[in-house]
C-alpha cells in the first residue's frame, strides 16, 4: 500500500490506525449487522458515538459546563451566516479583517446587519495581526468576530483580545486543537472539522449557553443554535 503525504491545510491526513479501525468495523458495526453509514442517525448506537465524541472534545479542550457543543453541517462557511442570524440583536457587530476568510465572514454578516471593521491588515496584504484594544470595541455591538488562524495568509492571533462584555466569536477552522486555548474567553468557537479534527462534512460549534435562543425572526429553524 502506498499512502500519500498530504501537507495541504485540509482535508488533511487521518491516522492510519483510525482508517484501519473504520475499515474493520465497516460491514458490521458493534454486532448491529450493518455499517455505521447505514445506522439510523437517531439510534442508540449512533447516540453513543456522538456522545463519546462530545465527551472527548470536552476533555481535550477543557470546555466549561456552561458551553454546549454542537456538531452541525454546512462547513465553517455556514457559520458566517449562522452567527449573525443568531446573535445580532442590536443589528451590529465588530469584525477584525485579517484575511480571506475574515472577508468572507464579513460579506455574509453584512446581509443581516451592520458590520463594523474595527481593525484590518488588508492594506498591508494581511501580513500582520492588528492589536485590538478595549476602546476599539463598540459596547453595543452584538459580538466581535476574529479568525484566530488565517489559513491562506499564514498569520495567527498569539494573544486573544479582551472584548469585555461583548461576546468574542472565533473562526478556529485551522488551529482548533493545535494549542491550548481558554474556552471561557469566547462566546462562540466554530471550526470545520476537515483540517484538525476529521473528515470534511462536519462543523464543530462551541457556544456559551446564554447566546442560544436569541435567533432573529428570519433565521431558518435548522440554523437556530
Ligand atoms: C479559517 C477558515 N475559515 C473557514 C473556512 C471554510 O471552511 P468550510 O470549507 O468548512 O466552509 C476555511 C477553510 O476551508 C478556513 O481556513
TrEMBL record:
<keyword id="KW-0032">Aminotransferase</keyword>
<comment type="similarity">
    <text>Belongs to the class-V pyridoxal-phosphate-dependent aminotransferase family. SerC subfamily.</text>
</comment>
<dbReference type="GO" id="GO:0004648">
    <property type="term" value="F:O-phospho-L-serine:2-oxoglutarate aminotransferase activity"/>
</dbReference>
<dbReference type="GO" id="GO:0005737">
    <property type="term" value="C:cytoplasm"/>
</dbReference>
<comment type="pathway">
    <text>Amino-acid biosynthesis; L-serine biosynthesis; L-serine from 3-phospho-D-glycerate: step 2/3.</text>
</comment>
<keyword id="KW-0663">Pyridoxal phosphate</keyword>
<dbReference type="InterPro" id="IPR015424">
    <property type="entry name" value="PyrdxlP-dep_Trfase"/>
</dbReference>
<dbReference type="InterPro" id="IPR020578">
    <property type="entry name" value="Aminotrans_V_PyrdxlP_BS"/>
</dbReference>
<keyword id="KW-0718">Serine biosynthesis</keyword>
<dbReference type="GO" id="GO:0030170">
    <property type="term" value="F:pyridoxal phosphate binding"/>
</dbReference>
<keyword id="KW-0808">Transferase</keyword>
<dbReference type="InterPro" id="IPR015421">
    <property type="entry name" value="PyrdxlP-dep_Trfase_major"/>
</dbReference>
<dbReference type="GO" id="GO:0006564">
    <property type="term" value="P:L-serine biosynthetic process"/>
</dbReference>
<feature type="domain" description="Aminotransferase class V">
    <location>
        <begin position="4"/>
        <end position="216"/>
    </location>
</feature>
<dbReference type="Pfam" id="PF00266">
    <property type="entry name" value="Aminotran_5"/>
</dbReference>
<dbReference type="InterPro" id="IPR000192">
    <property type="entry name" value="Aminotrans_V_dom"/>
</dbReference>
<protein>
    <recommendedName>
        <fullName>Phosphoserine aminotransferase</fullName>
        <ecNumber>2.6.1.52</ecNumber>
    </recommendedName>
</protein>
<dbReference type="InterPro" id="IPR022278">
    <property type="entry name" value="Pser_aminoTfrase"/>
</dbReference>
<comment type="function">
    <text>Catalyzes the reversible conversion of 3-phosphohydroxypyruvate to phosphoserine and of 3-hydroxy-2-oxo-4-phosphonooxybutanoate to phosphohydroxythreonine.</text>
</comment>
<keyword id="KW-0028">Amino-acid biosynthesis</keyword>
Amino acid at each position: 500500500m502506498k499512502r500519500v503525504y498530504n501537507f495541504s491545510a485540509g482535508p488533511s491526513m487521518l491516522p492510519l490506525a483510525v482508517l484501519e479501525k473504520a475499515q474493520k468495523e465497516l460491514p458490521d458495526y458493534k454486532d448491529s449487522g450493518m455499517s455505521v453509514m447505514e445506522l439510523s442517525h437517531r439510534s442508540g448506537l449512533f447516540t453513543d458515538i456522538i456522545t463519546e465524541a462530545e465527551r472527548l472534545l470536552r476533555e481535550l479542550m477543557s470546555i466549561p459546563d456552561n458551553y454546549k457543543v454542537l456538531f452541525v453541517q454546512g462547513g465553517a462557511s455556514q457559520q458566517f451566516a449562522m452567527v449573525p442570524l443568531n446573535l445580532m440583536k442590536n443589528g451590529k457587530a465588530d469584525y477584525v479583517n485579517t484575511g480571506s476568510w475574515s472577508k468572507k465572514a464579513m460579506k455574509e454578516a453584512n446581509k443581516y446587519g451592520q458590520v463594523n471593521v474595527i481593525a484590518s491588515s488588508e492594506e498591508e496584504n494581511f501580513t500582520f495581526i492588528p492589536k485590538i484594544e478595549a476602546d476599539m470595541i463598540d459596547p453595543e455591538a452584538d459580538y466581535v468576530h476574529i479568525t484566530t488562524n488565517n489559513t491562506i495568509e499564514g498569520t495567527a492571533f498569539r494573544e486573544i483580545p479582551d472584548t469585555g462584555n461583548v461576546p468574542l466569536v472565533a473562526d478556529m477552522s485551522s488551529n482548533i486543537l493545535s494549542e491550548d486555548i481558554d474556552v471561557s474567553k469566547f462566546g462562540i468557537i466554530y471550526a470545520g472539522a476537515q483540517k484538525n479534527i476529521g473528515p470534511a462534512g462536519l462543523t464543530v460549534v462551541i457556544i456559551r449557553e446564554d447566546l442560544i435562543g436569541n435567533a432573529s425572526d428570519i433565521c431558518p429553524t435548522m440554523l437556530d443554535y
